[in-house]
Amino acid sequence: MKIFSEETCGQLLTRAFDEREKELAAVKEILSAVRARGDRAVFEYEEKFDGTTLTQENFRVSEAEFAAAYAAVEPEFLESLKKAIDNVYGYHVRVGRQDTVRSANGRTTGYVVRAVERAGIYVPGGTAPLSSSVLMGVLPAKAAGVGRIVVVTPAKEGKISPYTLVAAKECGVDEVYKCGGAQAIAALAYGTESVPKVDVIAGPGNIFVTLAKKEVYGQVGIDMLAGPSEILIVADSSADPDYVAADVLSQAEHDVLARAIVITTDAALAEKIAAAVEEQLARLPREPIARKSIGTGGGIIVVNSLDRACALANEIAPEHLELYVKDPDTLLPSIRNAGAVFLGGYTPEPVGDYFAGPDHILPTSGSAKFFQVLNEDIFTRKMSVISYTKDALLADGADIIRLAESEGLTAHANAVAIRMQKEGKKA
After folding, report:
1. How far apart are the C-alpha atoms of 248 and 262, rounded to whole Å?
2. N or C: less crowded end of the chain, CB within 10 Å?
3. Over its length of 427 residues, how does the chain's per-residue pLDDT go in tens digits?
4. Is the domain of 137 the same as that of 284?
5. Of the listed 92, 253, 254, 320, which one is catalytic?
6. 319 annotated active-site
7. Kindly report the CA angle at 113 between 146 and 227, in degrees rounded to 5?
8. SS3 content of the chain, % helix, strand, coil (to 5)
9. Residue 330: CB partners within 8 Å, gap ≥ 6?
10. Quick one: 349 and 400 in the same domain?
11. Is residue 249 part of a domain?
């Protein structure tokens, strides 16, 4: 793992969302085809990309397939999964927003929260079956009160990981469709003979999934534009280099495009971390992926203070930010831009990925400056509520009329004036 000074680390600081012309053209073609031909187009692309032969009879996962999935997974997995579901669902219910309506002096104002009717959750299934992404996509929607939740996920040669299917069932979802990529996003956005049109699409995916979400945004809501996984670790001399190296590799193994960065105030620690990364790499089954990721998107930056470390972290705005320092709570107020923040040496990123409760579907590529973690708000809308009594309207009416007339909107003004006149109040 390369070591940089603050003066030479420029290449690590920014990574904009990569919109490539070739991929975008392919995505637009797929979206158009699915919009025009529905299921038939989805089936053609699934055959082409995943080697899956689909019909309307086997497109949706059957109860028999769910039963087979339960038979295939270990009882211990199911036990751990249930605990994770309790944590994640309980968290989202606890932090979810409620109606906020206040009344004073005849004026009632506020908002009420309403869930969308249908949500589509994309679950990646490429290089690794991500059953945890089922929990992180479905459970905030469920906590928000979404009436119909649809899961789409790739099926390699017609099969979906049993862990993914069991996770969906345990989350209360039995509407799972065997499709991935841009064609899955198109099916959710436009609807097909089999897949319902949804109101919001959430969940991470590859470049084709992300570009497709970007293209359909406005016709449906989306959670964010999520790119390759990222981790940034701020470490001081108290950090264990073996722990830091392990956390770096926990993200590097995701994808050759993943980004893993360490910022430290201790040059000696930097050397130890680099050595530990190399030593641990050799033992990883996904070593080729992790090594390429580290080589192209990884590095250790040595800075002269934790203040500078936090400033660089805010500039990078990482998906995952670990504050592995002696007193992480003192740094948290300085952090403005991150998808999720992990405090202390005993909170490695996988705690958030699988179990703690907060969601692991997070903004990447610097978009944490304007996107937020997936949460129940993504699946709800706020509707304003306003109620005036007669006395309140008579008290505020002249001001409202004056403002309307300043815009030349006399009918607006009259809607208030006519009421005031009938009540014997001068407008």
Report:
1. 8
2. C
3. 999 888 888 878 776 666 678 899 999 999 999 999 999 999 999 999 988 899 999 999 999 999 999 999 999 999 999 999 999 999 999 988 788 888 999 999 999 999 999 999 999 986 667 899 999 999 999 999 999 999 999 998 889 999 999 999 999 998 999 999 999 999 999 999 999 999 999 999 989 999 999 999 999 999 998 888 999 999 999 999 999 999 999 999 988 989 999 999 999 999 999 999 999 999 999 999 999 999 988 999 999 999 999 999 999 999 999 999 999 999 999 999 999 999 999 999 999 999 999 999 999 988 899 999 999 999 999 999 999 999 999 999 999 999 999 999 999 999 999 999 999 888 7
4. no
5. 320
6. yes
7. 60
8. 50, 20, 35
9. none
10. no
11. yes
236: closest CA among 244, 224, 228? Answer: 244
Structural domain including 415 reads 389-422
The gap from C-alpha 177 to its chain's centroid, in whole angstroms, comes to 20
Count of domains for the chain: 3
Residue at 10 is within a domain: no
Identify the residue whose tokens are 């001001």.
Answer: 399
Whole-number Å distance between alpha carbons of 141 and 388 = 34
> In this structure, is residue 130 part of a structural domain?
yes
- C-alpha separations of 244 from 61, 233, 239, 298 in Å: 41, 7, 7, 13
Q: How many residues does the chain have?
A: 427
| Pair (135, 232) in one structural domain | no
Are the CB atoms for 300 and 274 separated by under 8 Å? yes
At 173, give phi and psi (nearest 5°). Answer: -110, 125
- Taking the C-alpha atoms of residue 375 and residue 137, their distance in angstroms, rounded to an integer, is 9
The verdict on 213 and 249 lying in the same domain is no
Q: Among this protein's residues, is 29 annotated catalytic?
A: no
